[in-house]
## 1
Amino acid sequence: MPAPDVATSGHAFTPDAAAALGGPSWLSRRRIEAAEKLAAVAWPTSREEIWRYSRVDKFDPGRYSPPDYGEGSGPARQAPGGGPFAAEAGDRAGLVVVRNGRVVHAEVEPGLAAAGVVVADLADVDPGLAAERIGACSDASPDPFTVLHDAFLAGGAFILVPDGVVVEAPIVVLHWTEGDGVAGFPHTFVGAGASAEVAVVERYASTDQEMLVDAVVELDLAENAHVRYLAVQEHGTGTWQVALQRAHLGRDATLRSSAVALGGDYARLRSESLLAAEGAESDLLAVYYGDGDQMLDFRTLQDHAAPHTRSDLLFKGAVEDRARSVYSGLIRVRPGAQKVDAHQSNRNLVLSEGAGAESIPNLAIEADDVRCTHASAVGPIDDDALYYLATRGVSPDDAERLIVLGFFEDVFGRLPLPSLEAPLRRSVNEKVGHLHPSDPRGAR
């Protein structure tokens, strides 16, 4: 059955609802423009290549509504603390806490603030800083969900590091969504000026209620900027996530971006890097693990628009029970982008009957002096590896866990924030532990 379109379906995402969110005039104008576009948007279907194998046909906007930010019902503007995740991240330069898409707390070290570093709610930032930056990356890659996001964008994390400033400790952003039938629209903007350096860690989490998280992350790197970025997705079992992460890289800029995806019912991430000038480099990493009836869906783009640019992608995942994963990636080399070095690899373990993984790497090369490779693999655990461990006295359940954890090890070793390697390994280990809850083959 085709997905309903916004123009004809009964739902709460109306222009009046968008206008009622208030906020600064520039943000209200952006919302109203998007809400007007939304009235004519038709939701995509799985017949479209970019949505192939997805669950988008099951999406019904009528099941969700924007959060009520009215007096007495919205999040209190108080500091709720960073929680265990922020503590595990270690020393931090700043903290942003976001509830249902709105910032409830933001802080930055005084010395960094004096140097011009901004860590704040985008709705509270001087319009001269925010108005031209919000959408600078995401507007270049719209889809129906980014239009919906823009129509109901009420606030979000805004991080700006001026030219030449080096932020030693990471800035932590915590996103929390709650409420049955709620649609949250988290937005994060990270801007790194010329020769600036910053690390940003985000965690997305939610209750087990049925909800929609429509997220956008923009990473804007000026000349010779260096950004490390890690996103950890641990949503509850009822969450549908549709997220865009898009980076624009200037001359000699470097991005080290990683994603860990463990939660959600259907969780989709579109991860894109535009290497817009010579010398830009982008590394994209991901670890994902699905169980139960989860679907984890990844679409990536390594877009080389300039010569002498480099990108490398490594996504590794595992699925068990009835879970499914989808990976579809494209390396694009535009005309004139000579001397490009680009690589893409996706590898998947299917751990039980009923689970499945799709892997579709692609190349679109319009230059003739490049070095580009892609590779993918989908399969079960190697029987020879199990046999090898069995001959050394390792039980079948421990052997399978060891092999799965070892499968992810090279990605964990390259995460941009070493302090989180151990807790993230522990989170994956907990998922792997579900393989054998009581006996060597487990009770499903």
Note: Confidence is low (pLDDT under 50) at residues 1-8, 71-81, 438-444.
## 2
Amino acid sequence: MYPNQPQPFPPTPSPTPSPADFLNQIAPQAPQKSSWGKKLKLIGSIGGTLIVLVIALAITLGAISSANREPAQKLSARLLVTQDIANDAQSNLKSSQLRSLNSDLRLFFTNTSRDIATPLEAFGVTAETVPDRITAEETAIGEGVSNRLEDARLNAVFDRTYAREMAFQLSTMIALLQQMYDAAPSEATKTFLDTTYKNLQPIQQGFADFNELS
């Protein structure tokens, strides 16, 4: 060996593990969290949101359906109540013009009551399914009209009072027909409602224009 030849470095001793490292090595490892848990949690969250949206949509559609149905329910009840008023009034009318107009109205009620069943069913309405609340409201309206007409008869102002009352009642009926037309589910229903409107509107106008002095 040459005297100036560099000596090899002695090997670096491996570090002796500390007791803490040794305990960490032999301790049971915590299981890694599975990604399935996260996926299931995400799926559950999405599913819950969808259920809430479906329920909200069902409530909204139910409210819309109910709103569309109510004008038809009111019209069904109002036709019956107003027809009774028109029938009772005929014998008390003195004006030949009003008697003729009222005869046209009674014929309208007869024809409409006969033909309206199918259009009402398009809105999910029959005479048996009109809520008691609406029936009671329309009956109360009719009783109010009848009471005012009786007072008018006793005071010898029946004709002009009847013309005014009937003009108003028929105008509300026309408004219901228009609401139903806007929400009608089929062209056949729209056609019926349009024809009914065209038949009723001139009669309503006749009562509105009545002047017993003319």
Note: Residues 5-9, 52-64 have pLDDT under 50 and may be disordered.
## 3
Amino acid sequence: MSIIGITGHRRLKYPKTIREEIRFSLQYFISIHTLPQVSAISAMAAGSDTIFAEEALALGIPVNAIFPFEEEEYQKDFTAEEWQQVMAVLSHPLCTLTIRHPGPVSSPEARTAAYLATGEFLVQQSAVLLAVWDEQPAKGRGGTAEIVQYALSHNREVHLVKGWRINSEEKGAGDRRLLEEFNSLDSRAIRFKEWLFEPAWIGGIIMGVLAAASFATGLAFGNQLTAQQRYIFSAGEAVCLLFSAILLLWLARRWKRKFLSYRKSAEYLRNLIRFRQAGIYVSGSTGSADAALLSTAAAEAIMQPPAGPSMPYGLHTIRRLIWCFAAEQAAYQQQKRINRFTHRLHTTEKILSYVKWLFFAVALLNFIVESEHYFHFILIPGLHSFHDVLILLWIVLPSVYAALEGVNYFSEWHTNIAISGQIKAELEDTMKTVLHCKDEKSLTAAAENLRHTLERENKNWLQNFGKKEPDIKP
């Protein structure tokens, strides 16, 4: 049984990032030892300890929660929300609780000693220690730095997860600036895509369909409309066409260019940060990032040598970092690209099928109405009163079908699914390779392969967009 322990800071500056790194790190340990042979141990402090326990349970890893003293006393160190998280972990069927020092705590010194003893006990029970640490000295007895040093002195395998505390003086400020810059660029890319580009693109298509509907309404109901009503529908058609042109030909293109610029730069920084965390130097320039989008501080940080993990952590930390990065990117390809594109493709094809059969049904009903009128018989009572509606649908449905076919064709979902599938397969091959790397040279080679895979993906969709938009400068 391989027992994974955790030590780390309580007040984290980037808890979401730490949660993701802990999740993929646990998956890494599972890939080495297999799930039935992996368990976790945590002192359940707020922040890193609780996040670690939550992610372990989510992966089906049993957790042994270690309290330094009784629940009533330990609860004093938590906010109400933090303690609620702890209780949720303890209620899980895969979680067990051990109290190291039952009974009352007589003094602050005894309290500190209990924390230190609990941390040392956790290290003694663990084969591997995951340390969410900013590599700064401990602020008190039993802190993360002291537990890490204790683990190293007892020959435990320590894996560093760089985790900055709130309002702390951070070692490796350049890496911190790069992370902040990535978060900023990533947020802007998401905003341009989800709030601006995609709504403009969808809105332009809808406006085009509405223009066709306005034209068809005036044509189908022309004999029943007044001159003013016909003018209103004609004006509606013109306005819808105008807005469709503005949205599709100007705003959507403009915002897509912005989205791609921010996305490209964010992805470059993501790659750079991950490799620098492993102590691997990627580039001495801004690479594929758009230099105009980078802050001066970030551009300077790129030129600085990577801080990387300190030597005591050895190759096992670098191996884990590279594996986790490849696993993170493989999960991204599956969840954000393959699954999303497949869902959109199936949804669009299903709607296209409905529109097609509805059009055939309308055409058939319209033929029946014309036959009833010509041969003077009634096959479907009351159908003649809907004749104008049938004409309207008969005109509009081809426009809707053409618009959806355009969405299906220009989105290239089939191509994107195939590309992402290939990239995911390459990433999974890299993950397997990394597990067998025994020296720095082989790890560096695996990291270079990973880098080339990610760079190629970045270039692929930029080139695809460039082919459709020849007027856009790179």
Note: The chain has a mean pLDDT of 85.
## 4
Amino acid sequence: MNDYRFGERLYELRKQAGLTQRQLAWEMKVSDKAVSRWETGAAKPSTNTLRRLALFYRVPVEELLSLREEKPRKAITKIVITGGPCAGKTTAMSWIRNAFIKRGYAVLFVPETATELITGGAAPWAMADGLEFQKCLARLQREKETVFLRAAQQMREDKVLIVCDRGLLDNKAYMSALDFAAVLRELGSSEVEARDSYDAVFHLVTAAKGAREAYTLANNKARTETPEQAAAIDDALIAAWTGHPHLRVIDNSTDFEQKLERLLAEIAAFLGEPVPCETERKYLIRYPDVKKLKELPNCERVEIIQTYLKGEDGQELRVRQRGSDGHYIYFRTEKRRLTDLTRVEIEERLTRDEYLRLLMQADPAARPIRKTRYCLTENSQYFEIDLYPQWTKQAVMEIELRDENEPVRLPKGIRVIREVTGDPVYDNHAMAYGMPEED
């Protein structure tokens, strides 16, 4: 994890001195790129350079040394395990604990809130107002997550994985849009903030879809759904989480043990164990029917602005604003390409202030990429359709895969012009320096 606190101090000192990065680089006899990397936390100056900086800024060298040598912030990741009734979540939790404790993580579990309330007697059918049940559920969910985050910060391990047995957006599948908006108001939150407060979401498909012989009510006292109802709930849950930056759907195309192995592989890949790689395929498609996309329950619109920063050769650095209707979250992403399909990707969540500060490091030769993204979940795969304001006849569709051999099941109604995986012309980084003409 980058040390932003150290970088912020160097940035403040430079601004107080009224210097540009180039001017400071000249004073320190280093490149302006080196200064940029210090201030973003991507690198730290040598001890001799720190002494020169302390003398130049007239601050105690001990201050800068202590900041540089400060213990890195704890890496805390919060994920959601969700899914339809009888999807295997309970067993999955045990597998996750065993797998990631072995990898050096402290693994904390936030129990399923709905089950706690129902088995405790506060069932929705026992209350006079179903909406009040959902408000209670959301409040308790938020409080539990806050407590577990506080506990995570005190764990001895440097890596902590918080696993939520369902998250706040699960509520959306059980109520009207109007009622869900009322729940969000109760929390003082927005849908973007509630959904994207989790780092990743993993949906286990109900056994009622593809493994009906395994569907049972016996292993959960709170479960009452028929297989048909379970399948409908499963679809609603996928739709509720569609739009999240990292949603993965684990279906029943294999036996149950292999299903859980696929889940562990997806979580490990997201955490970057051992290396955070991104495997994707990219297609140039005909401009989609936006009206039909908006009507789909399993499709969500997202507004994106991504700005590219100056980086070293072979390194792609960007910051991104992502959200909708005035509610946004922010990321810093570093990528290095391994093959046409696979790249090393390191992504960190930013505060708004961190995002605005990093915008000052933008590459002046690159134009910010603005696009409207439609996130579409279909055939247990997660597609991202990007519409660019410069185009009216075509768009780009991407899908992230577990590995290079995973088959792609294209969504209905999408007309592919050609696959452009690995084509540098359609790489967003390249497009920031000049959009290609339409086919």
Note: The chain has a mean pLDDT of 88.
